[in-house]
Amino acid sequence: MTERPLPPARLSWFVWGLGALLYLIGFYQRVAPAVLTDRLMTDFAIGAAALGNLSAFYFYSYVAMQIPTGIIADRWGPRKLLATGAGVAALGTALFALAPTLFWANAGRLLIGASVAVGFVSMLKLASHWFAPRQFALASGMALFMGVVGGVFAGVPLRMLVDAFGWRAVMGASAAVTALLCAAIWLRVRDDPAEAGYASHFHGAGHGTDQHGSIWRGLMEVLSYRNTWILVIVPIGVAGPVLTFAGLWGVPYLRQVHGLETKMAAAITSAFLVAWALGGPILGTWSERIGRRKPIYVVTTALVLACWTAIVFVPLPVWPLAALLVVTGFLSGNLIIGFAWAKESVPARLMGTASGVCNMGPLMGGMFLQPGVGWMLDRHWSGASDGGVRLYDAAAWQAGFVTMYACVVLSLLLILFARETHCRQMPAMGGRLQ
Question: Could you tell me if residue 1 is inside a domain?
Answer without folding.
Answer: no
